[in-house]
Amino acid sequence: MRQRVLTTQRLVLRQWQPSDLAVFAKMNADPEVMRYFPKLLTPTLSDAIANKCQRLIEDNGWGFWAVSLKKSNIFIGMVGLNTAHADMPFAPNVEIGWRLHKDYWGQGYATEAARASLRLAFEELELDEVVAFTAVVNTHSQLIMQRIGMSNTQDNFDHPMLDPSHPLAEHVLYKITQQEWQDNNLL
């Protein structure tokens, strides 16, 4: 399978490298980065997630890519596409997601990388739609979803892997269709 590398003006979305793992583990153990996730991750679990992302890119040619700055090759997080877990109420579908090191927040990197991922999803993979979801309280991610042209479906749901009483259980669901992507990117 051809492994895609996506580039933007400032970023490279690429296959994972061993040097990414320590920074990724530090991100996943940071309470601020993981604020909207149910728990902090151990280095072992963080490495397992990165390795799974790497395997999915090898198998599919796409996935949650490691993201690095184009000028310095510094790893700053992950952005990309993933097949939604079968237990999700909107499955089967492809989701878009991101997790960046907090030192790189507020600079438009997540939006830039997400747009590149959507371009691939609609122009090469020819998907009909892409979804995104997050805890209702995660307004920062919802702003990114809006910036990349996604709309809130108003179909909130309780995340199936969380107890319904958990403060992060209720999630919003955003989506964008291929037609919406085309309409927004032909302007």
UniProtKB/TrEMBL annotation:
PROSITE patterns: GNAT. It comes from the Bacteria. Gene3D superfamilies: 3.40.630.30. InterPro entries: Acyl_CoA_acyltransferase, GNAT_dom, N-acetyltransferase. Residues 11-179 form the N-acetyltransferase domain. This is GNAT family N-acetyltransferase. The lineage of its organism: Bacteria, Pseudomonadati, Pseudomonadota, Gammaproteobacteria, Moraxellales.
